[in-house]
Amino acid sequence: MNFKIKIHRSATKFLSNLDKNNRKRIIEKIKNLANNPFPNNSVRIKGWKEKLYRIRVGNIRILYFVEEESSTIFILKIDKRSRVYKR
Prior knowledge:
- The chain has helices at about 10-15, 20-35, 80-85; strands at about 5, 45, 50-55, 60-65, 70-80.
- It is an alpha+beta fold.
- Strands 1-5-4-3-2 form a five-stranded mixed beta sheet.
- The protein is globular and about 35 Å long.
């Protein structure tokens, strides 16, 4: 089952500021989420009302929310580990 992926504007902005290699690695991870929204390296974020998950690419974290009814994955935030969890 393929999921649709929607990326928040702030995540797109962060991606546009990255170097080419890191951007390519992150985009590849996001594309893989369409086939499997809960890979082995995904972790549920505790302390949030929503069921947020994260995957890591080096020191960069990708926070996302899966809406199974509409088969959509929302990429909410992409940022460095030190800043990504701040609300």
